[in-house]
Amino acid sequence: MLRHFVSDLDLSVSEHTQVIDLARKLKKDPKKYRYALDGKTLAMIFQKSSTRTRVSFESGMLQLGGHAIYLSAKDIQLGRGEPISDTGQVLSRYLDLIMIRTFGHDEVENLAKAATVPVINGLDDLLHPCQALADVQTIVEHKSTAKGQQLVFVGDGNNVANSLMLAGARHGMHVRVVAPNGYLPQPAIVELARKEAAATGARIEVTSDLAGVDGADVVYTDVWASMGQEAEANKRKEAFKGFIVDGALMARAKKDAIFMHCLPAHRGEEVGAEVIDGPQSVIFDEAENRLHAQKALMLFLMTAKAEVAKKAKTKAKVAKKVVKAKVKAKGKKAKR
What we know:
By secondary structure, the chain is of the alpha/beta class. It has helices at residues 13-28, 52-63, 84-94, 105-114, 129-143, 159-171, 187-197, 233-239, 247-250, 273-276, 283-335, and strands at 41-46, 67-72, 97-101, 119-123, 150-154, 174-178, 204-207, 218-221, 258-261.
């Protein structure tokens, strides 16, 4: 079956671990995988601009021996109203992988339904699964394991918070979202994460009480107004007063807690400079791991695609042999 990465849940518990383990191997010995995707091409569709997503995917594909093509909405017919299903079918005839960074989650789902090559969700308004993969890799590097760790996300219950809950559920990592009333994560995502967490023993919690930071192993935040929410910036600043991760709030976490942020960051708003630039911050390890986690993901998806093709080829060969055998048997019967 063709595999996509539209949601964090598109990888099973064991597959999440497999991808993270591979990401760490890629980071340790990148030269070993220099030709792993030789001759393969990745399309990168950007309806939302980015620094980390663009550079990490493009560099990652190059480091694996492949090639990446940047496609903004202005570069392709999506910007002029072409259905995304048509785009998916056409691009599938030209290349081997598609990554899309866009607004609506339904756009990513529809692209995956139409495409005959793996589709990767580089970010949408609902989820940011590639970021969560890199985040788990970073936590494993600094804490030895993600399982049993208490991650506390402070701020807007946005796409990053959603993916952290889902990824946490997959890895047995406890995730607590601390957000003002009116900005908590969508109840449907919370319930889905809790349902998935039952298999790994993870706890998924939401609260508006800053005491939720107490005892955290990982403290995480994101901007208060994401791309497309610029008009709400002032309203959100007012609503999020007191939710800044400053030295005082960070002190409520464990002494060996790490601080994470998916970037870009606004010092003095969602995080204090003393925290993000302090000794507990691992934001640049986290940003670097976007490269390694996504390389591992692309390799995983392409391997799955190759296995499907191999099975189809084997099935076709068997069917051909069966037909030949039937024809041969029919011929012998006719001679009698």
